[in-house]
Amino acid sequence: MSATVNNHQPRSAQEIRRVVTSYLGWTACAVALLLVIGPLLDIVGVVAVNGLSAFSYKLFTTTGTGTSGGLLNAIEGTFIITLGAMCFAIPIGVGAGIYLSEYGNNKLGNTIRFLSDVLTGTPSIVLGYFSYVVFVITLGWKFSVLAAAITIAILIVPYLARITELALRQVPVSMREAGFALGASEPAVVFKIILPGASSGVITGALLALAISVGETAPLIYTAGWSSSLWRGHLTHEPIGYLTYVIWTAFQQPTSEAHALAFASAFLVMLVVLAINIGVRLTVRRTKFV
Amino acid sequence: MKIRPFRLSMLALSLLIPAALGAVVLFLLIFAGPALGFNGLDFFSQINWNFGDFDNDPVLTRGVMVPDGASYGILVFIVGTLLSSGIAILIAVPLSIGAAICLAEAIPVVERHLPHWCPPLRPVLSMLVELVAVVPSIIFGLWGIWVLIPIIGHLTPTGNGYGLLAASVVLALMITPIIATTLLDALMQVPKENRESAFALGATHFEVVSKAMLPMVRATLIGGIVLALGRALGETMAVAMVSGGGFNILPTSLFSPISTIASFIVTNLDSAEGDPTNMAIRSLAEVALMLFIITLAVNAAAKLLTSGALNVRNRK
User: Fold this and answer.
1) What is the domain extent for residue B143?
2) CB–CB of A118 and B21 under 8 A?
3) Is residue B301 in a domain?
4) Complex ipTM, two decimals?
5) Would you say residue B43 lies in a domain?
6) How many domains does chain B have?
7) Which chain B residues touch A90 with a CB distance below 8 Å?
8) Residue B64: CB partners within 8 Å, gap ≥ 6?
9) pTM of the model
10) Is residue B146 part of a domain?
11) A173, A71, A174, A89: which is closest to A127 by C-alpha?
């Protein structure tokens, strides 16, 4: 593996020891890399094989209880919760990103940035419990779409703000100056010059946030609840199903039907998450986002 | 001073982030208030968590109405959290150091010997390592139950794989990419001069990496490890699925069932909802608050460690 070693003959015992140590070291490193990547490939393989074999036409056309039946209500629920969360999170996250990048080079900006990092590091179950306490119990919304969407929104806003800020900062200052020189107002410069210039970065952020919200479970269990039927359109007082719940609950059941359902659901979640993340990484070359 | 409505509205939007954080802390604190008074300091030192008897009438204990026999102690969960995260770090650190070294130094050498039609290895491999970090927790849990638990089951006398070791291994896999990518970035920033002078002194390639480059990125490595620790402490679903849900008993071996603070919250809110006095839910809020404070402390430590040492030290 090391070209420098192969070129000359070892002479003393000490030199042999060093060369052998090097080879052992490289081997250990290669094994470590395999042990990191191997499980990922195994996860993808196991979930894909078991998930695809559980696919059927009925899976996507009928509703289910989470342990039997179809996944239609779960797919619909995940879609609605994610959509709702994005509706809250995108204006706030992008707005916060605009402030941090354009006007945030001061103490206040640094404080917001720090607290945003703190929110990113907060375990999602803590956010879930907060929403349970505030929305589900205190405000009396019960398990509901709104409680779930707000929880997920709180979870993804800091990511969106961070990525938007990074994207906007990559737009050259001269573009802003050119805009102002033409007499454009601040909102016009931001919305007509800077945001379009950084749109790919902002879209990347929104997609990554989407991947996070599709894969989350812990904050939803006690905010969304579970419903075995399709959503009837109430924002509060009506629980809703979602895909990750199926994985969580099906494995507490002994039946193989429940396990097959869990794998099918896991495959759908994994497909969305990996497709978004691979797509983003292939199009946006090596940008430090997350 | 001129009022700028646009600037102010953007500021208002960005202030929602600190507001949300403040609301989380404030409402958890308010809600947990009665539990804070009821549990006192025994909360941290007591092994037993008992919801009490919901069917009997609540009784007056220490001035508050609670279910008969209710007592709340989280020592078991604190121990479970620290042990599982600690073992996970012990597994993850060598793995991520090895993987990062491999990606930074060995793969480019391998690439030079590959035929032209071969796609570049390093971007693909480092993308795979990054992708480990985005796999949802619940899918790690699923894989843990399906693949890992049977393997660990073969090692135990009882044949039951659920427990501390399973939780630690799953956590280790989840946090490895965090350390590995941090370290990889730091290794790539080590000045060329330092590498070359080590080579010039006659060091083997591996000695260059281990004796000249690794010591330079030590501070970043420690920051990455603490960051990963913060993630491991708060990890919920995967741990809840493979940890065996140990309750009221301290772990005695690698295979003992455990609960972490996070997994305990998610698996026990169902039971807590049955409590007519709400004290169980309030005590769980106190648990959530504890978890928040612990992860906050760890993340702040990571921030301090990395901010002072983000740039590789140039020894001149």
Assistant:
1) 75-111+119-315
2) yes
3) yes
4) 0.87
5) no
6) 1
7) none
8) B34, B37, B38, B277, B279
9) 0.88
10) yes
11) A89
